[in-house]
Amino acid sequence: MSWEVVIGLEIHAQLTTKTKIFSGASIAYGAAPNSQACAVDLGMPGMLPVVNQAVIGKGLALGLALNAELGRKQVFDRKNYFYPDLPKGYQTTQMDYPIVGKGYLDIEVDGDIKRIGVTRAHLEEDAGKSNHGVVPGQTGIDLNRAGTPLLEIVSEPDLSSAQEAVAYARKMHELVTFLGICDGNMQEGSFRVDSNVSVRRPGEPLGTRAELKNINSFRFIEKAIEFEIERQIELIESGGQVVQETRLYDSETNTTRSMRTKEEANDYRYFPCPDLLPISVTEEDIEAVRASMPELPDAKRKRYVSDLGLNEYDAGVLTSSRAMAEFFESVLSHTQGNDAKLCANWITSDLAGALNKANLDIADSPISAELLAGLIARIQDDTISGKIAKQVFDAMWKGEGSADDIIAAKGLKQITDTGAIEAMVEEVLANNPSQVEAYKAGQEKMLGYFVGQVMKASGGQANPGQVNKILKNKLS
Amino acid sequence: MSIGKSEVEYISRLAMIDVAESEVEQVSAKLNNVLDLFEQMQAVNTDGVEPMAHPHEVSQRLRKDEITEGDQHEKLQSVAPSTAKDMYLVPQVIE
Amino acid sequence: MLHTLSVKQMSDQLHAGEITSVELTQHYLDRISKYDPELNAYVTVTPELALEMAREADEQLKAGTAGLLTGIPVAHKDIFCTDGVKTTCSSKMLDNFIAPYDAHVVSLLKKAGMPILGKTNMDEFAMGSSSESSYFGPTKNPWDLNAVPGGSSGGAAAVIAANLAPMATGTDTGGSIRQPASFCGITGIKPTYGTVSRFGIIAYASSFDQAGPMTRSAEESAWMLNAMSEFDQRDSTCLEHERPDFSADLESSLEGLKVGVPEEYFGEGLDPEVEKIVKEAIAQIEKLGATIVSVSLPNKDLAVPSYYVLAPAEASSNLSRYDGVRFGYRCENPSNLQDLYKRSRSEGFGAEVKRRIMVGAYALSAGYYDAYYLKAQRLRRMVRDDFTKAFEQCDVIMGPVAPTPAFNIGEKTDDPTSMYLADLYTIPVNLGGFPGMSVPAGFAAGRPVGLHMVGPYFSEAKLLNIGHQYQQVTDWHKQTPAHYQ
Fold first, then answer.
1. Is C152 designated active site?
2. B61 touches chain A (CB under 8 A)
3. C208 near B CB under 8 A
4. For residue B54, is it within any domain?
5. Which of A190, A239, B60, C192 has the CB geometry, 3.0–4.6 Å to A14, for a possible disulfide?
């Protein structure tokens, strides 16, 4: 018996504005309870909303990036229901006239490209937070988050596996962070993924779906969806029916469980918010957004490969985040000759390695792009060898200054003077007569030994290329 | 389209307003009076007439993204019925 | 006596140093103590605040930095949030609510130097046409204590009529400034929607609510409207344009004015006395140089049903915030969340408010949105377009404010729909967002009757001009019930 899986994702991305969507209170994370909830956010009597200019450009940027229809006329609607974290008793959202209409996002799964439809993306306000048991038997409501601008991005139910779902979620995460419209911090709740999962036999109508919420890592989202698919299949095969409900994921047992089932589908009584007027977006507005769009990740990766000659793996690592790509491009622009491979290598192995070990993000790297560029420049101009550069790198990581500072302080300047190298080569050859005999007898591997000896004698500072050349010369 | 007991119960849940058993009839009678008013609307032909949400054809004004509201929780919570640790209290919600 | 002076006279005397604002304010406070118990027009009197503001006003007057209205006391309808003052909307739900901020209107009139005498009684949450649904009991009509003062700004109208304040603020969603002005024999104007900021005004129906002045004369209303209509960016529906001086046209002649009188207005249901008074008033205006033109408002009967879908629908959503959590009434010992919501709201709201919330929720509910809400919005456009078309043939439309003079207290409380139907003249103005004004025009069996004037968008100055000119040749607006003279 084969089964088809149908998954649609609803992603809530918190926008990187300074203030709320309808009031001038800050949205900064981690503030003391209710210190960022003004009278408008609290829905106090007589308070009214005014739309934050910044949310429009950010929404349009996503629309452009998704090749989507854009909302030139937008209307905010009220979604009415009662919940303590919803101060006005309604959420202001966009129903019929959202900021972004139909678009698409291409994802790659196992080497294949699949186009996933995006139904729409709309602006809405976030709710506050409930803190259970603040006082025994009571829930404490913190409304700092109430009014934070969200972009809700709804996919078509085009995803057919947990793997595809996570690929889509990751791609969308990459997109919104590259666009700079969302910081993507899943731990802080800036990027929330709700998965609607259902199964059906091929050819049959859509099955009942369950919604998985409150899972804040891609790994767990994938596991939760996998579990849910199995659960639904087993349930149906044993004669049961899938209930439309919200389910939470338990990472310890790797299972999903039902949240309290809502008694009935909520009647939200949507109607246009009479305190707000329709938003009008002009062609100029759209062009301004288009003109200020950053290079998107796919385009960037293509360019790294085709124009900069990097391999796909490196291109992938360097575009794993906007910060990483910016770092790389900054290093590249601060060095000579556009040697992308050299810069890429330093970032993807040495820097990435050090960051991983110290559990740091590129944003917190003790070695800035300028510092790294300075190091690479000294390799390029033969001041130091690649090997010595690693020493310099370690010292830079520890905060000992710029490449020039360290090279001077430790006297690491490469020896390139032919005369000096010749002298060292002659000494090594003179001290190793049997090895010289062996080499002349045909053991070419001895060359490596001689190089090693010269490097040792020079404290690693002889230019290896020149050592090689002079050795070969002397030995011939 | 008249309002009976089950409609009154439904609306009561939506609006979070209790209607006591003893009042249901009275309430539904009054609501039905208002519905009669609504019925008058149905007879009118409104084909081709756009709904009118606002008197003026004006677009929403946009506000600069600047912080203009600071921490006012002390003043604003001075009118709150029940708070603790600067949070508003409600009977615990079980999720 | 101080309270018989016109505001112009008060202002002149204040500026000349002949009287002080403290004297004037104390005078009104004394009258309030004496007369308000029988009228119940005030919910809250604020003597300390009033006198403190009066002292400040006197300093400005001494320093020569005072404006026209500096030192003139004002009463605010209890729908305007007033910082530090109980603001109840005449509801048990907000009986304990000390507003932590000022409405924009309140800030503006504070800036104009007007001492606040107190907050006036109203229909609960502005839902009503008689002020009988107030949690604090009805206000009496100063002209006849058995009669209602009208609503929802009944308290405001009563304080002007009984000289318990020289100027008052009101709000009008379906007629709530104009109808009480008519019932109490005073002047009131609801400006074009978007003229006055709604920030800090407790919302009833957002696309209809509009604040305006209530005074003895049109001239005084013009000055007050000037002071209270400055643009406010905190209200998205407040229009940005520079307001004109609403008093600039007061002295213009009415020569050439075209007055439209709708054929549909003088039919069945209109009290013959009211009809007579209104027709006399229109004839008076004709004598001042106007021409009378017959116009038609064919969709007149659609206004009331449309309004009674749309206003409750908006209200049902606007009043969801009253849930016992962050402010306002909370029930005792809620056992769970749903209990908290249901009991706080059911105990905190009065019967009419609960009724309108339920009607509104129903009109928006699944399956009925198109048939009720959207349909009503289409009718709204049709009613509005009637007026726009009529204004192609005239400059102002005149008629009755209400089909009868003030009815008796208790007479209509059992039949809310009959009260709704009495709003037929005022409601279309709110549906369209036009400016509308009521000026006193006579008496029927001892109870005042007003003349209703409606103008095209932004024609407030013209309406006030007409009112002022009418008041130059009549003295209905100068009358006060004997008991309160």
1. yes
2. yes
3. no
4. no
5. A190
Decide: C77 and C156 in contact? Cβ < 8 Å: yes
Chain C residues with CB inside 8 Å of B36's CB?
417
In-domain check, residue B51: no
Query: How many distinct structural domains can be found in chain C?
Result: 1
Which domain range does residue C55 map to?
Answer: 2-257+478-484
Contact of B51 with chain C, judged by CB distance below 8 Å, is answered with yes
Q: Which residues on chain A are in Cβ contact (under 8 Å) with B9?
A: none
C180, C450 Cβ separation under 8 angstroms: no
In a domain, B66, yes or no: no
Write down the pLDDT at residue A146: 98
User: Which tokens sit at A446?
Assistant: 């001895």
In a domain, C443, yes or no: no
Q: Which domain holds residue B18?
A: 5-42
C294 is catalytic: no
Q: What are the helix (H) ranges across chain B?
A: 5-15, 24-42, 73-77
- Whether A28 contacts chain B with CB within 8 A: no
Q: Scan for tokens 């009109």, then name that residue.
A: C363
Alpha-carbon distance C461 to C470, whole Å?
14
Residue contact A277–C100, C-beta within 8 A: no
Nearest residue on chain C to A77, alpha-carbon basis: C317
Distance CA C402, CA C385 (A): 22
Quick check: is B55 in a domain?
no
In sequence order, the 6+-apart residues with CB closer than 8 A to the CB of A12 are: A126, A150, A151, A152, A153, A191, A192, A194
Name the one residue in this structure whose structure tokens are 């209790």. B18
CATH number at residue C26: 3.90.1300.10
DSSP-assigned letter for residue A228: H
CA distance A371 to B73: 45
Q: Is the pLDDT of residue B95 over 70?
A: no
Q: What pLDDT, in 10s, does the model give residues A154-207?
A: 999 999 999 999 999 999 999 999 999 999 999 999 999 999 999 999 999 999
Neighbour-count burial of C435, counting CB atoms closer than 10 A to its CB (0-12 exposed, 13-18 middle, 19+ buried): buried
The secondary structure of residue A346, as a DSSP letter, is I
In this predicted model, what pLDDT tens digit does every residue of A120-143 receive, in sequence order? 999 999 999 999 988 899 999 999
Is C379 domain-assigned?
no
In a domain, C408, yes or no: no
Residue C392 forms part of a structural domain:
no
Helix (H, G, I), strand (E, B) or coil at C53: helix
Q: Point out the residue among C313, C327, C365 whose CB comes nearest to the CB of A44.
A: C327
Using alpha carbons, select from C31, C420, C466 the residue that is nearest to residue C258: C466
Report CA-CA distances (Å) from A318 to A302, A396, A412, C54.
Answer: 12, 21, 30, 70
Query: Best mutation site among B5, B8, B17, B69 for testing chain C: the one with the most C CBs within 10 Å?
Result: B17
Query: Of B31, B41, B82, which is closest to C359 when you measure between CB atoms?
Result: B31
Beta A210-215 vs A246-250: how paired, if at all? parallel
**pLDDT tier for residue C155 given thresholds of 50, 70 and 90:** very high
Distances (CA, A) of C64 to A163, A370, C50, C59, C327: 78, 65, 21, 9, 42
Contact at CB, C317 and A46, closer than 8 angstroms = no
CA A19 to CA A23: how far, in whole Å?
7
A-chain residues near B85 (CB < 8 A): 33, 134, 140
Per CB-CB distance under 8 Å, the chain A contacts of C200 are 46-47
Say whether B69 and A38 touch across the interface (CB within 8 A): yes
C324 at B interface, C-beta within 8 A: yes
Q: How far off is chain A from C204, nearest CA to CA, in Å?
A: 9
Helix, strand, or coil (residue C77):
strand
Q: How many domains does chain B divide into?
A: 1
Q: What is the least distance, in Å, from the CA of A331 to any CA of chain B?
A: 33
Q: Any idea what DSSP says for residue A347?
A: I
Pairing mode of beta strands C116-120, C74-77: parallel
CATH level 2 (architecture), domain A418-475: Orthogonal Bundle (1.10)
